[in-house]
Every structure is written in structure tokens, then in C-alpha cells.
Specification:
Helices cover 19% and strands 34% of the residues. The chain has one domain: Rossmann fold (3-Layer(aba) Sandwich). It is built from four helices and ten strands; from the N terminus they run βαβββαβαββαβββ. It starts with a strand and ends with a strand. The longest helix has 11 residues. The radius of gyration is 15 Å and the shape is globular. The strands form two sheets. Strands 3-4-5-2-6-1-7-8 form an eight-stranded mixed beta sheet, sandwiched between helices. It has a two-stranded antiparallel ribbon with strand order 9-10. It is of the alpha/beta class.
Length: 177
């Protein structure tokens, strides 16, 4: 298991619970530190213009986002202050190998924000935050993620029980009381 103190791992109980909004707020706050953002999906989607292929196998594709003009999460990350943004599509069974292909791009002194529901199985992030909306808690991994997350944030999709501004990065991610 990879130990990465500078990684903030964010997962959520479903779609539209506010994961991307939370990440974008954090990126704005930490823009001066040149954060790196990563979106990981277990589903293979048609790629959009601006996704530059970095690495590929039969089980994963790693892209760097270069387009700041779309509504895709990886583009929104750039719009909100990420110095670099990556998009990784990977079968859950191959996520560990796929993540290894991303590692050379994750700088040890930069804040790294990763949206992924399953990566906690393979890395020990500095902080694993779970965004929970009771109305969308139908994912099979919700119960497990609630148990293993370092911190749970309640959300209705647009407001949060714990504000993104309360997180700080000082070589590792911390929550201000």
C-alpha cells in the first residue's frame, strides 16, 4: 500500500452529492500551492477534446486534461486552480496498477486531491474524506467507505456540514476544528 500524506482522497455516497464542488472550493483555496487534481472513474467513457493520453492498457487509460473550457470534472479542476489535472479510467481490479502509472506525476510537495470511491483500498492517503447524502446512499460501497473514512461530511449536494475552507494543507491535509 502506498503512503501518501499529501493526498486528500474524496469519495461520496453517489452522484451529485457535491464531491466536485467540494474539490473545486479546495482548489481555489490552495491555488497558490499549485495543487494537482485527479478524477478516477471505474467506467470507461468517451473521451473529450483536450484529454491527452499518457498511458494505456486493456484495463486502464490515463489522461492529462488540457482543456479548461468544458463542464467535465477534470476541466473544472483546472478552472478552479489546479496546476495540473488528470483523468484515470480503470477497472476496479486494475486500479492499483493504473495508480502506479499516475504516481510519477504526483509531486510529493504539492497538495493532491483525488476523487475516487475505491482508491482507499490501495493507498493510505493523508486524509480520506467521505461526502455523504442520505438520499443517495445507495451505492454498495457506502457502508464500507463510511467505516474507513477519516472524516464524513454531510451534504445536500450544494452545502456541507463541514466547509471546504476548514481543510488546510501543510505537507499533509488537516481539518481545522
Amino acid at each position: 500500500m502506498v503512503n501518501s500524506e499529501n493526498i486528500l482522497l474524496i469519495a461520496g455516497s453517489g452522484r451529485n452529492v457535491g464531491k466536485t464542488s467540494y474539490i473545486c472550493n479546495l482548489l481555489k483555496k490552495h491555488e497558490a500551492k499549485k495543487p494537482i487534481a485527479v478524477k478516477i472513474s471505474p467506467h470507461f467513457h468517451k473521451t473529450t477534446e483536450g484529454l491527452r493520453l499518457i498511458s494505456e492498457t486493456n484495463h486502464y487509460q490515463l489522461f492529462e486534461e488540457t482543456n479548461r473550457e468544458t463542464a467535465k470534472d477534470s476541466s473544472l479542476y483546472l478552472q478552479h486552480g489546479a496546476a495540473r489535472s488528470f483523468y484515470l479510467q480503470a477497472d476496479d481490479e486494475q486500479l492499483a496498477d493504473a495508480f502506479l502509472s499516475l504516481m510519477p506525476f504526483l509531486e510529493a510537495d504539492k497538495p493532491i486531491l483525488i476523487e475516487s470511491a475505491a482508491l482507499h483500498k490501495y493507498i493510505q492517503a493523508g486524509l480520506f474524506l467521505y461526502i455523504y447524502n442520505e438520499e443517495s446512499a445507495d451505492k454498495p460501497f457506502t457502508k464500507t467507505n463510511l467505516q474507513v473514512a477519516d472524516f464524513v461530511v454531510q451534504s445536500n449536494g450544494s452545502s456541507f456540514s463541514h466547509s471546504p475552507s476548514s481543510l488546510k494543507f501543510e505537507q499533509t491535509w488537516k481539518i481545522n476544528p
